[in-house]
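Pilot study result, target chain (409 residues):
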Amino acid sequence: MPGPELADISTEELDGLAERYLAPNYGKRIGLPIALIRGSGCWGYTPEGDKYLDFLGGIAVCVLGHCHPAVTRAIADQAERLLHASNLFLTEPQVRLAQMLVEHSFAEQAFFCNSGAEANEAALKLAKKIAQDRGETQRYEVVSLQDSFHGRTIATLSATGQTKLQEGFKPLLPGVNYLPINDVQAAHELIGERTCAVIVEPIQGESGVRPVGEEYLRMLRELCTERGAALILDEIQSGMGRTGKLFAFEHAGIEPDIVTLAKGLGNGMPIGAMLAKRETMSHLSPGSHGSTFGGNPVACAAALATLETLFEENLMERVQELSEHLFRQLKELRKAFPKRIREIRGLGLMVGVELDEAASVHRALLERGILTNCVRGKTIRLLPPFIITRAEIDLFIGELRAILAEEES
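Predicted structure:
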């Protein structure tokens, strides 16, 4: 028997069905049962007609906002032509997307998959394959940063420097070492002849939006080159213009050996990518890696439309301008509430506001119709779409100010 139309079901009914039929790994989501059935621009709408200003963007995914016409049109047009073919055959959207990513990056070739975890998995496999092809059988260890997040597969969870996320899944991939962020001496001690890869997020998102220093990234680049390890930069959250440049590593003026993308790449369609030079990618010999749905024509068409819009509408310049406005407003707010706001971190429209206690503020923002993310109970993470307006930023700032004033009184 067919179920009701989404518009004809309440949030309460959906919450009940979810509790009964969905796996419990997401718990109660973000603290309140909220169902979103429609999105437009920077706003999401519930079955009851309530609207929410989206300062989370599907966790850095909806860089162009919800249902951007260029992306929606590309998806619809491609769905009428070809939904799936597998990688046994060429499809135009996949090749065109690879071409565009290469033309706007250091890379020369691309591999496509379905998510950030898959992109990082591919990168780790590639780094190990390079060492094996060179006959360096002792070179299999991976170095990542403490508090990092690289995914939830066994390999990417192993590379994730958060013990709490690894509990219940051990033993993990052997040979992974974790560096304290921005610790130069530890890097020189840990990265050695057994290291096949160093994997780093230029800005750590899941630990509270913590930028890795530009000097530190330059040091890692030099050290990896000197010691024969591949430098993998995980740009799954910080890439696609989020920091005002297509890739966050560009701020440091370096080139990685491998870069991984996902999230904002498809503006909502599931897609991940791994980019590298031709010589590096040549180690992925036929049959060494693959993905049935990777590079799906519809997902690639959406990603191509997203990239074209980013460049045609100069949205990365807009990110820089809006970032200046947002940071200026947040700094003024910190002056007004110095005991509450401890630190403001980030770059572009990837921002973390560390508070003395963030969970109550996160919930209050939700109750006032603003979607954010609370990290570790300490930091409000902001990842709004690039099309957000100054007026919408000011609306968020006004609500945050009111909440802090109420809690302080």
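One observation from the pilot: The domain at 40-61+314-408 is CATH 3.90.1150.10 (Aspartate Aminotransferase, domain 1). A full batch analysis is planned for the follow-on phase.
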